[in-house]
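Journal club prep — side note

Before the paper discussion, L.F. wants everyone to see what a predicted structure for a comparable chain looks like in token form. Sequence:
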Amino acid sequence: MTSLLLSVCQCGCNQGIDNRKYYKSKYLKGHNNRGKNHPKYKEGLPKNGNYRKIKRPHHKFAMKSGYVLFHRYLKELRHCNL
């Protein structure tokens, strides 16, 4: 008996897709909005309220979790480069 799984999900989960339908699908149901394809994707940076965070555990403004607010980090970089 041959396998009916003709392709692999393109979201990165590598699960098989049963393409016996009248059209070929690149994704499993619900997998096409993961990662960069999701409408709320923000360059992969976690958020703290409305602020983005960046992982810098040894920074002087780092929180206990090791994250620094991204706008503070950018301001410091701009100030040091003047």
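L.F.'s comment for the group: The mean pLDDT is 76. Keep this in mind when we get to the figures.
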